Amino acid sequence: MKKYFIALLAILSLGQISFIAPAIAQNPRVTIPDFADLVERASPAVVNIRTTEKVMVQQSQGGIPGMPEDQAEFFRRFFGVPIPGIPNGPKPTQPNPSKPQEADRGVGSGFIIESNGLILTNAHVVEGATTIYVTLTDKREFKAKLLGMDKRTDVAVVKIEARDLPRLPLGDSSKVRVGEWVLAIGSPFGLENTVTAGIVSAKSRDTGDYLPFIQTDVAVNPGNSGGPLLNTAGQVIGINSQIFSRSGGYMGISFAIPIDEAMRVADQLRTNGKMTRGRIGVALGEMTKEVAESLGLGKPHGAYVRNVEPNGPAANGGIEAGDVILAFNGRDIAKSTDLPRVVGETKPGSTATVQVWRKGATRDLTVTVADTDSAQVATKKPDVPNANSNSANAFGVAVSDVSDSKKKDLNIKGGVEVTGLGEGSLVRAGVRPGDVIIRIADTDITGVKQFEALVKGLDANKAVPVFIRRSDSTLVIPVRPK
Predict the structure, then answer these.
(1) What are the helix and strand counts (H, E) for the chain?
(2) Which of 32, 202, 221, 334 could form an SS bridge with 215, CB 3.0 to 4.6 Å?
(3) pLDDT tens for residues 112-136?
(4) Distance between CA 391 and CA 420 in Å, rounded?
(5) How many CB atoms lie within 10 A of CB 316?
(6) What pTM was computed for the model?
(7) Residue by residue, what is the 3-state secondary structure of 186-212?
(8) Which active-site residues does the annotation give?
(9) Are 333 and 312 in contact (CB under 8 A)?
(10) What is the dihedral of CA 147, 148, 149, 153, to 10 degrees?
(11) What is the largest CA-CA distance in the chain?
């Protein structure tokens, strides 16, 4: 049996060789990478970052000099008499005051981008730190100054006072290819200058509002955060930032901030100490295939506007809840997560042309971009559900006219409020009492009579988009009246 098993392994090995060999023959450049020279060049520019924070430590009060506190407490409790050599004897126990003391907070990584000591790392590595210590590979340690950090992109810039330091060259993250070899250098679990390698697994992974992450299978663990992701040319193409894990440790998937995005943020941080972004005041929802088809778009495309901030930049520019933003300043918006990045890169105070899809047609609107610091928070009153009732219309809902106060609260001009649920397609789709139906397909709803007549005249076999206002969101629910 054993010899058959060995023979099988030999056959499989030959099969793998015969599979790989033609690929190498067709492309002589395909080689198994040797990272040794690359690591030797890059490692001196990768640093260990240790942070501390102030903690309150309870201090002993009323103790006996030269005597451990537990023994002093014994004398105080059971003798209560003066002790030789101690004026006035032991004192009664009093509440102990707290005194601030520096304690270790965490360990991370970073890398030098300029020889004068400018270092990139993650914001979460240095956030909340009282003191930042940077240790080089030659064991020199410096106190670093935080020039700025941006929690939304998880980028931070720190500076140490040093000269002629080794630095890492920056690559072009837009040219990263899925499948190419990459490696990470960092301090996982405090193990300085640990090197791990793998490949790029995917690009433009949306795990945050402002970042299209590079996904890799490079082993990244706590302490790697802030370290560089390098290509085979030794150039930085990303900053290791996150892992996907159910255990707290590496499970085969890690994410890096593209260096192009990181440097755009870093340039502002080192100049202004903070990141300034544009905003237009919209909340976005998911654009599904069903919603896209019901709106006449054909395929999911664009950013669906779920809500518009009252008197915000978008509202003042004519954008409405229920619109689909297809382009911003000439840049195509393929999905909802593209819009915050594109708007965020736009200079506050500038005007932008926004192409929206509304009622089966495109239109161009002009919006003046505001600063994120000017964000407003609109408070909405909660809807109070009404008792169920029956309805004879195809949607299966009973409706009433919307009160002026509710129109003001929801920032709408018309519509009908759902007051009861019966049997029908809209009920099965999840409509609730208190929801306001503001539009069906391309027709705005103005009142109960118009709503009932419109529903009655719909094609029973054709899906139509129903626009629902719920609290501060506008939902699009594709339904068939049948």
Answers:
(1) 11, 26
(2) 202
(3) 999 999 999 999 999 989 999 999 9
(4) 8
(5) 17
(6) 0.65
(7) ECHHHCCCEEEEEEEEEEEEECCCCCE
(8) 124, 154, 225
(9) no
(10) -110
(11) 103
